[in-house]
Amino acid sequence: MAAELFPPQKPVPAPGGSSVSPQRLQQENRTNNNTSSARGGGSWQGLYPTIRERNSLMFNNETMADVHFVVGPPGGTQRVPGHKYVLAVGSSVFHAMFYGELAEDQDEIRIPDVEPPSFLAMLKYIYCDEIELCADTVLATLYAAKKYIVPHLARACVNFLETSLSARNACVLLSQSCLFEEPDLTQRCWEVIDAQAELALRSDGFCDIDAQTLESILRRETLNAKEMVVFEAALSWAEAECQRQELAPTLENKRRVLGKAIYLIRIPAMALEDFANGAAQSGVLTLNETNDVFLWFTAANKPELRFCSKPRAGLAPQRCHRFQSCAYRSNQWRYRGRCDSIQFAVDRRVFIAGFGLYGSSCGSAEYSAKMELKRQGVAAAQRVIKYFSDGSSSTFSVWFEHPVQIEPDAFYTASVVLDGNELSYFGQEGMTEVQCGGVTFQFQCSSDSTNGTGVQGGQIPELIFYA
User: Fold this and answer.
1) Integer Cα distance of 461 and 440 in angstroms
2) CB 308 within 8 A of CB 453
3) Please, how many CA atoms are within 13 Å of residue 383, restricted to the half-sphere of its CB?
4) Which residue stretches of the chain have pLDDT < 50?
5) Predicted model pTM
6) What is the pLDDT of residues 25-36, one digit of tens each?
7) Contacts by 277-280, CB closer than 8 A, 24 or more apart
């Protein structure tokens, strides 16, 4: 991602009638300019009207360089030229280094703890007021920005991380956000981990976290995950930790690296079947622990356990209801395999867990629901599920396998194809905007809807979500 801190300039007409941007001119002329400058000829300064453009030419340029950095760990270093005045203007650390009371007159400065691409990204911001970030280097760039106190670049890194945050990387970013003391990013990581806990725990990134972050996740009361998934994730982490410590991944070593964290897993809160077929046969628990948990499940006189037996509370789902009333029979609602669909957008990130649907208006009935969530025509989640309607005007919940992350200010399409009793309740007096749980939902009609559902009436009365 590249973000300009100055508004883009209009293209400059080039010979022959085409147009070339100042940035492209800069790139095309840099080699010639540098060559003429080195020879002492040519007035390259006159080619660029602003100090920003002229400063940009000095980025990673030997011309007038009065300091050099040897950046990167041994065996992977890169020598980078710098200009003390420019660096001091952009960073209080560089100012102290070059002009402070304890300044040392060094021609070459070694920086072994910063990767060269990230150091160059920081210098590009200081010289050019341009921010170029990518997923592979953003954390290292954030480290460099923090080390040299370049706060606007650090903020841009955090914004980039928040934008790219997903269940796949939330655990790793949680660990890093605590290290960098970024409480807002930490909170956003927890939101993702809580709502999409099973996806986060099964991600490759979960195995890369440190032991302290592992314990904080295992302690989490609001994880929306089965305890068996938590247990399996902990074992996967333990195997990776054995490799990091150069230990054979034996059951004994896995238990050893887990240490007291094993007791943060709520093994008695598992379903008995999950415990018997999974944790009890894993070999990680001692024989006494296994026997005690079995007795806890089955005996009237339950033994004391070091494991917490209380299930995690998880997150409480919220429901956005978009109709003010419902009706039946007067305008009989039918299905016959047609699609009911509605588009919606939110003003902050949420996680759609499922839909609330109407059921039969002619007594109890069972429905099969093919539910789908799409963005720009691409399916984000699909599921076929059955639900039972008791004949009342209540809504009945159908759930996706995993909650789906919904980004703000983008329209998504919620659809359902029902098979079951044709006559059903349906919503009326629909609202285009609904505020629920601090989130503003906007609704509009969907071209996918072939059964009459729209903003004013129809099916899909509720969106079930976590925020």
Assistant:
1) 16
2) no
3) 15
4) 1-41
5) 0.80
6) 444 444 444 434
7) 278/228, 278/231, 278/232, 279/228, 279/231
